[in-house]
Structure formats: C-alpha cells, structure tokens
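=== RUN LOG ===
request id: a7f3
mode: sequence -> structure
chains: 1
length: 803
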Amino acid sequence: MDANTRFNFSAIDKKWMKRFADEPVNVYSDGKPSLYYLAMFPYPSGTGLHVGHWRPYVINDIMCRHQMLKGNYVMQPMGWDAFGLPAENYAIQTGVHPAKTTAESIVTFKKQLDDIGAALDWSREINTSDPAYYKWTQWIFIQMFKKGLAYEKDMLLNWCPSCKVVLANEESVGGCCERCGETATKKHLRQWMLRITAYAERLLNDLDGLDWSYKVKKMQTDWIGKSYGAEITFDVKGTDKEITVFTTRPDTLFGATFMVLSPEHELALQVSDPIHYEAVKQYINETSAKSNIDRMAAKDKTGVFTGAYAVNPVTGEDMPIWVADYVLIDYGTGAIMAVPAHDERDFEFASKYGLVIRRVIARDEDDTGIMEAAYAGEGVMVNSGFINGQKSKDAIESVANHLEKEGLGKKTVNYKLRDWVFSRQRYWGEPIPLIHCPICGVVPVPDAQLPVELPYVESYKPSDTGESPLSRIEEWVNTPCPQCGAASKRETNTMPNWAGSSWYYLRFADPHNSEAPISPEAMKKWVPVDLYIGGVEHAVLHLLYVRFYTKFLYDIGVVDFEEPFKRFFCNGMINLNGSKMSKSKGNYISPDDIIACYGRDVPRLYILFVGPPEMDSEWDENGIEGVFRFMGKAWKLVSENAGKTAKPTKELLFARNKLIKDVTERLAAFSFNTVVSAFMEGVNKLLDLSKSSGVDKETLETLIILLAPFAPFTSAEMWEITGHSTPLFAQKWPVCDESALRVDEITIVIQINGKVRENISVPAGSDKEEIIKAARTAAKPKFPQEQPLKEIYVPNKLVNFVF
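=== RESULT ===
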C-alpha cells in the first residue's frame, strides 16, 4: 500500500472538522495581541461557490493561521452582501422571491465556506439585507443628505434594457452591463446622486500613504483622473448664451476653429437655428442608443451643424458650433474647443467636414507645410498673437493668465470622476429613507423611524418605464410628512448593492450594536482593517466607495481614521479553459467535487500553487494531482519517522532551517506558489535524508507547524501521531537559526562555451579571483585553446569559459 493510499484524507477531514468546531483554535482573550484580517464577503446568489471563489478566502485564512502561530488573535469574520442585482436577477430567473432565494443561498454558501477549512468567526455574521444592518446603511445616507452630499437630479443615464436598471459609469464595462453583458443604452430618469467629487482630491492624495500595490493605486488614480487646465467662456453669437469648455491646452486657443457639443449638452438644441433644429434633434436621438465606449471607438467621426456660431475670445473669429458623439457629457463640461491641427479626433472631424485647420505649434522653423495629420507634441507658438515665439509649454501659463486677467476664463483643476449615481429602480435593495412632502419638500425619515423596512411584495420584477416596483405599493408609498404631517410619499428608488458593502467592514467590529453603526470602543480596538483581500474586479468601484464612505464617517466623527484598509492584497482570478469561471456559463469546477476527490487540504494548497496569487491562473487537473502526491509524501515522511529516535545531523539541521527561512520569507512576500514549492523541495530532501539517518523529532515538528496554516487538517493529524496532545495552533512559529545554514564548502559549476564540463568544491567565502583560478586549474585540460576569450562568473554558482 503506497503513501497516498494510507493518506486517508476523508477520515482526517471528518475528525478535525468536528474537533476544530468543538475546540476553536482562534480564541480571543484580553491582553492577547489582536489583528483584523478580512476577505471580501460574497454575494449569496445562485447555486453556490466555484473553486475560483476559494482563492481570497484560502489566502486570508492562511495569513490568519500564520498570525495565530505567532501568538496573535485574528478576527476573521464573514457575512453576506445580500442586497442588489445578483440576488434579484437569480430570483427572477427562478421565479422565487429574492428573500427566499437569498436565505437558501446563504445556507449553501456558509457550508461551502466552512468546507474551505477557514477559521471564521460566525458570531460576527452580518447580512446587508437584515433590517438591523441596513438601519445604519440608511442612517449614513441621511447624514450625507443633511450635509448636502446626497441630491436629486434628472439625468441621462446608462440603462440596461435586460436588467432594467440604471448603471453607474463604473458598472457599464465596455459599453455593456457588467452583470448580464447586455449592451447599455441611455435613459432620462430622476436619480439620487452622491457628491463623491467633493472628496476627489482627498481620495487621490491619500493613496500615497497606503500599503497597496502600484497597479491598484494606478487604477484608482486613473479613475479619479485629475488634470490641470483652464475653463474658457465662449459667447454664442447673436444670443446671451455662453459655452464653457475645459481644456488642458489653453496655449492652442488661437488654433480653435470650431466648437463641438456632446449630444447630451443642454445647449445642443437651444442654440440650433430653425433650419438645422430637426437634423440636430434626429442626431441626438440616434446617439442615445450608443454606449460611450462605442462612441469613442468609432473610427468614422459623425456630427451635425447647429447653424450657430461662437466667438473665439482671443481672435474674435466666428467658430461654427457642431454636435458630435465623440464628445462626451461625462468629461469636462461636455463641450470642447476644437483645435484640429493639434488633436487627432478634431483633425479627423475637420477633414471630413471641410473645417478650418490652423497650425499654431511648429516643431521647428521649417514646419510650415500642409498638415497631413495632427501634431500633439511640443514646439514653438506660431499664428498665435501675443504668444508667438513662445515655447508651447510656457504658453499654457501665458494664455491662462491672460484669460483670468480679461475675465474670459480661469485656471482650474478637472476630474474625470463623476458624482455617484446612487439610486436604483429595483426592488431588492435598501429603501432610500426620504419622504417627498408637497409643503416641506424632501424630508429625511427621523432616526427613531429607522429602518424603513423593505415591504414584502409578490411582483418584484422591474418595469420598462424605469419606475421601481415599490412605486406600485400605495399603502407603503403614502405616508405623513414627519415634519408637518401633510400627506406625502416615500422615495421609491432603492440603494445600489454598493451601499451595504461600503461600510460593512466597520459593522463586523460591532455587529450587534443597536445604538450606533459602531461604538467608539470597538472602533478603537479593531479598525482600520489590518489586511483586506479581494479580486481585481473590485479595485476601482468597491474600494473607491469604501474609501469615500470612510472619509465621510471621519468627517462626522464616527471614526478617527480616513482610510479603511492598512494593507490591501489584490488577487487574480482562477480561469478554466482559458476564460473566467462562470456557473451561469457552465465553465466551472465545483468545490464539492474537488473535496470529495482530494479532501480539503489539497485544494487549499493547489489554489496557492496554481500561480502567482496576484495574477490570473489556469486550473489544471494535472497540477492538483501533483499536490495530492506531495501530501502523500509528507504523510509518509511523518508517519514513518514518528516515534523513531534520530539525531539531528548537520544535513537535517540545514534542511530544517532552510525550510523555515524559505517558507517564512516567501509567505511574508505573498509568494504563496513558491511557498508550496519550498514545501515540495523540503519534503523531498527530508525523504532522501531519512533513508540513511532518519528524521529527528524537532525537524518533523517544524515541518508540521510550518505546514499548519496551509493544510490545517492533515497537519493536526500529523501533530497528533507524533505524540502531541497540546493543540497544534497553540505552538509557536519556528525561527530560522542562520548559523545552521552556514556551509564550509560551496559547489561551483564549470562550463565551457555554456556546456557543463565539471563541478568543483571551494571553501565558502572564497572571492571571485580564487574561484576563477580554481575553476581554470580544474578545467584547463579540457580547454580547446590556450586562453579563453572571456570568463563569465556568476557569484558562488558557476564559471563559464568562452572560446
């Protein structure tokens, strides 16, 4: 019977699942150092998790268990992001109410999360669809409303015709709904907005102090999109109207020969003359069916002339005003001064419609010919009045100063970030706690009346009109005004699923508090989070919203810190057949099947071994088989040497301490795949040594403790069979004895023209000249010529003689 057969993972898992449940390994006590590690909580929708979902939870649990072995208590809570589109769409697909499908999904998800073997603290479990939880989600919104950060606005918004829901800009990926993949269209709707732009500068500046990856910081920086420039005002000829544009290149103002309004711009129809009005109107209607991504990607520029003209403030020339879909309402002011000589898109548009192209930046004094393409680089100003001859980078400041002096514009900072479209026309979400009174206007629900509970309805499907299903429940909608008592109506839109997840990390620290979102005592004890782990797909949306909420809660005194997560680790996805795992598309591996075949510890290890954790990786059945064989070897090593008496030879001490050093350093660097490699190399080395000298007890104990965070069930069983009755996770993480890693001799590989010819041993600490001399002496009989052309030395590894 081989080692794999004797490695009875099923019996081991069953035994230690019960033991860990009866005797928890992660217990808090006063005076014990405490940490807070959190993996992003899941959407409990659909039929459960696939193995790709395991990655952040396994990583988080390993980091928690490592800290336990260092003598720390680690709070590792779990809960449910239960409101929102995922749960509601699943309910619509199945025809079962979302309250019921969500509750059923939670049971499945909870079992599957326990199956991972994570040491989760279920006493802190939260559910964003629980009224006791969303009471405080609503309370936070009311505080934002009172501070002027929540406001109502009629907007042309991204609309998913399949989900029948408004999409925030961040939720329209590639012009499609991020949930269902349907092409997004546009729709005019009344919306509640959150003024996240008021926090743009703080959200940007505070990234500098975060222990986050460059990649994630750059994603957030790019989304916020800060740029410096000028706002310039253009009069519309023959009217009292003005068009304001934002430009980062005021130096090119003398080259602005026409203006372009986005189709959504409020002046697009207002400035159109009677001759062109219908054409402009038709063009606007046609554009409304296109997504922003499609508009920006279109190679053929389209547009329509309004018949109106603006006046260039520095040249006095008339500038025809066009409407074109390559200008977006989402950036700047939704209007541009077109400088075709120095902007590629403007050049293409001007070339197509025969508009004036005027060079105002010359590369050099010979740059005077007909322009065949736009030039966007730096140079010397020409055809530019008072800035002629200036370098273009200097002219930016000159023109901006002139505009401010003459009252024609001002220096300003612009952000690509837009205010957050916060309301949703769906059922399954937190009711927005506002009342529309005909006398008092919009009034917040008093704190004493929170939560405004979501009423149970039979018909929860969204409408094509954009009205929430709640609008059909008259007995719920109609309510007296809390200020004057007049007959009023509740707000019928609900919050997005981001609302509950934007502050949930706080609630885990104080989940049963009925008086506040979090008490000052719990806040000071637990938050901010020490380590936060989640997928790259949340690196912009979720993280940006949580940071915004945290800064607001800091401003109103709920918390005393401005950033929610001290450290954030962004994990990559696990793919199958070259694409993202998806249960809806049938492209997934069930964790239940994997556990039945390999137990719990093998997939935990394989999830780490599959590739660098920050990168997307491909699931491979051969790979998990290799990890299973490794676990069999580890089991064989321990079971065959347990109880035997072996002395710690110099070779065993070296192998033991090398394993401690490799695992500890790689774990600290989040290089989990190479940690598993270190275990494989270490176990193979110890198996070889065991053939001649056996393996001493301390080396076996060291291996088991090091392996414990990664394979807790098998490690606990191995700990027991080596004669221990004290809990494994009450032990201390091993410390490397560097002196055991010192060697008397090192092996040097000798190559001739890149081919290995010989190995030699030299005293440890030999310098370069001594090693090359020894190598030359040993290899000289094999030299094809008297003298090599070159001697290549890789320190303490090899010498290559090139002929």
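=== NOTES ===
DSSP finds 26 helices and 30 strands in the chain.
Confidence is low (pLDDT under 50) at residues 1-5.
=== END ===
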